[in-house]
Amino acid sequence: MVIIFIIMIFVALLTYIIPAGTYDTIIDAAGEEVVDPNSFHYISRSPVSILEFFKAPLNGLKKQSSMILSVIVICSCFRVVNDTKALSNFFTAALNKLQHRAILLIPVIMTLFGILGSTGALVNSTVAFIPIGLVIASQLGMDRISAMAIIYLATFAGYGSSFMSVTSVQLAQEIAGVPLLSGAGFRAVVSAIIVLSSIYLYHSLLQQGYER
């Protein structure tokens, strides 16, 4: 919070220094309102006052209330799953049953985490599931890097090619002024290909090493 507050002060001070300018919008051939790249012109500065400075966070929360609510709901739901250790207990029980055949569970785990990453439901909290990878690694005699890759590789392969993540895709689309989840079908296919490719590559490498 301190860092964010310092950044806010810095940006507010810049409104007294940097000249203000704007672009005009025009209607293109498709009937859509777009920015005219050749229309930039300077306008009179309107520096941020002290009152506006302190009102800005509240105005921002109000303007993006729907997006913020979506993030809160999604994160809260995942927090419940994480705190109850539902996923961890499930995978631990499965690993105990499979024993040395735990390698068969790797594609299942990576697929699940790839989906969670692709939907944006799981990103920063991935570290909480590293113990699952460590349990698999101990069963198969793998090192800790391989254990982390089981969880991280699929999750961030999904997140990097996400088709509906609230914190990246939807937020960016709202800022850009394009319809929410536009092109989601194409991105979902691309995300599935990337996630499945990473799982196949990782599992193939592990299978070769395991057989040796």
Automatic annotation (TrEMBL):
Pfam family, one: DcuC
Organism lineage string: Bacteria, Bacillati, Bacillota, Clostridia, Lachnospirales
Record organism: Candidatus Enterocloster excrementigallinarum
The protein, known as: YfcC family protein
Bilayer topology: Multi-pass membrane protein
Keyword 4Fe-4S assigned: no
Taxonomic superkingdom: Bacteria
Transmembrane segments: 64-81, 102-119, 149-172, 184-202
Assigned keywords, A-Z: Cell membrane, Membrane, Transmembrane, Transmembrane helix
An annotated GO cellular component: plasma membrane
Localization in the cell: Cell membrane
Location, primary (coarse class): membrane
InterPro entries tied to this protein: C4_dicarb_anaerob_car-like
